[in-house]
Structure formats: C-alpha cells, structure tokens
Amino acid sequence: MTLRFRKKDTRQRGTHTHGWGSKKKHRGKGSKGGRGYGGSHKHKYSYIVNYEPEHYGYKGFVRHNKKSMKIINVGDVEKILSVQEHAEVIDLSSMGYQKLLSKGSINVAVKVRIPSCSKKAKEKIEQAGGVIVE
C-alpha cells in the first residue's frame, strides 16, 4: 500500500516537546549536568562508583628514591639445593639476592652466604644444622 499524502504531524508543529517527553528533558547541553567528570562528586557519583571504580584515589605520592631489595625465602633455598646437588655453600649474593626471609622450611644443613637475613630465617637454617655467613 503506497502512501499518497504525507501525514500532517511529521513536522511536529504545535507540540511543545517534539517527542522528547517532558519539557525538561531535551534542553541542550545544560541537561547533561556538566562536561566530563563535572558533577562526579554530586549527581554523577553513583555512575562513577559503579562503572569506573578506580577513578577515585588515583592521585598520591610516589617515592622515587625507593630502593627495591631482591629477597629470597628459606623454602626457595631448599629448592636451589635440589637443583645444585652436593653444594656445601650457596652464595646467594652472587645470584643477586640481598636478604633472606623465613617463609617456608628447610631440612638440609647448608652454608648460606648472604649480606643480611631476618632473625627467623637465621633460626630455621641453624635448626637444620646450617650456618649463615654474612
């Protein structure tokens, strides 16, 4: 069926909303409530919390002079022992490690060379019959 005449209401003359519902809804950029993150601590807060949860708290202090120390745990020393069989002295400082920490366990007596270690790591190695040389 072909349409012979245009419907008179397609130009929406005489309607004050022009198909946008309430008078308030289609006023221009003012109805957005701000550009970008404008209003993000007020009326756009719930949107940002739900859809961009990492947005808040992105500023802070960065320590540029932080020296990262390469560490190794006692349990990892035992793993190194299983690879290097018949090694009496393990030189962790030559491997690039600076500190020995106490996570894990060790059952083999071994001499460990490292610049520094925690008290608990020293206890664990000495309980197994080993020695720490700093």
Characteristics:
134 residues, alpha/beta, 3-stranded parallel sheet, 3 helices, 19% helix
Helix and strand topology:
Layout: H1 45-51, E1 71-73, H2 74-83, E2 89-91, E3 99-101, E4 111-113, E5 116-117, H3 119-127, E6 131-133
Parallel strand pairs: 1-3, 2-4, 3-5, 4-6
Describe this structure in words.
- The strands form 2 sheets. Strands 1-3-5 form a 3-stranded parallel sheet. A 3-stranded parallel sheet has the order 2-4-6, with helices on one face.
- With 134 residues, the protein is α/β, with parallel strands linked by helices.
- The mean pLDDT is 85.
- The chain contains 3 helices and 6 strands.
- It has a domain at 71-133: Ribosomal Protein L15, Chain: K, domain 2, CATH 3.100.10.
- 19% of the residues lie in helices and 13% in strands.
Radius of gyration: 35 Å
Task: Identify the CATH architecture of the domain at 71-133.
Answer: Ribosomal Protein L15, Chain: K, domain 2
Mean pLDDT: 85
Under CATH, the topology of the domain at 71-133 can be stated as: Ribosomal Protein L15, Chain: K, domain 2
Characterize the main sheet: 3 strands, parallel
Q: Residue ranges: pLDDT <50 for 5 or more in a row?
A: none
Number of strands: 6
Number of discrete helical segments: 3
| Overall form | rod-shaped
